Amino acid sequence: MRRPRLRVLDGLRLLAALMVLAYHYITLRDGWGEDPQAFSPLVYHLSEYGWLGVEVFFLISGFVICMSAWGRSLGDFVTSRVSRLYPAYWVAVLLTAAVLTVWPNVRTADNWETVLTNLTMLQQGVGVPDVDDAYWTLFIELKFYLLFAVVVFRGVNYRRCVLFCGLWTVAGVVALKANSDLLSVWAIAPYSPYFIAGIAFYLMHRFRPTALLWAIVAVSFLLAQHYLRGRLVMNLGAKADIAHGWPVRLAVLAAFALMAAIALGWFDKLQWRWLSTAGSLTYPLYLLHMYVGFTLIDLLRNRVPALVLLPAIVVLMLGLSWLVHRFVERPLGKKMRVAMQKSVEEMRFHSRGEMPVAPVEKRREIVREERKPDPELLH
């Protein structure tokens, strides 16, 4: 029996995006020129932990990707991911590059070679800087998709998902001591526990909780706690020495607890339609908000009070995200999906029972023979 849409995940995605937005707009000095002083100490210090929205994204991603890949072929999986990720991303790259070219106050767009390489979403793999620093998470997501594509190729089922979780956990632990760049790149050790826990939570939701699945979640949670200190230093720099560590650990515990409640079906009856609309804004908002927002803050900070400017920019970013979703993601994503599905079907059709290619002379002889009238048809 088909389960109802998990609209709570849509709301949780938007909450994670707003956490990241608060961290960028309130904690970082890029747009303000210095540490923002217009906000209360409580708001400022709470925003310092907004980067944890990325961890929430990865946790949700493990759940959603396992759910969406179930029963799909590899071609269908790739089609769904490409048509979902790229339309809004292309608009975000070009719009951000245009803003940074016209108003290079906060940052420049580097050069158009960098911009064009960013359109592939593979820029980190070839050593090209991101047009927008928020894009670093997309390369992590792509690596997760490629790893999980192995499961999709074999056919997604309960056993293979559990095996995937176990092997990836081991790879992440071994990568720390193996001194192998290749293993470290693909193990994604600081972030893999969230994807793995998300997969386990989906298996609980689809089937039922078991001791094995709870064990996978517990190990992932403990490994995630291990990496949190490094993530704190990465995001707060020198301020990490004076920042409290316990809010970070409590926030991750709350995220795991909320995902457990979702997995157990506690939110299945939460069917507010506006949550789906909110969820549809998440991806464009994440892609667009950072340096476009920083530039607007820099241009207007001396003209508009900060307590008015910040909410106005958030509303503007939400409106821009809706426009991108409505007029780019939906129509272009649909066209890409149809075109890719046709391409996959064409590839499948021409890959069935392929014969070795004959030499040119032999092919010509075959053509001449085929052009001769069939003796059976002459009678």
Walk me through what this model shows.
Helices cover 72% and strands 0% of the residues. With 379 residues, it is mainly α. α3 packs parallel to α6 and α9 runs parallel beside α11. The termini are far apart.
Number of helices: 14
How many DSSP-defined strands? 0
Biggest sheet: strands, sense, closure?
none
What is the N-to-C order of secondary-structure elements (H for helix, E for strand)? Answer: HHHHHHHHHHHHHH
Overall pLDDT confidence:
89
- Shape descriptor reads globular
> CA-to-CA gap between the ends?
59 Å
Kindly provide the radius of gyration, computed on alpha-carbon positions and rounded to a whole number of angstroms. 25 Å
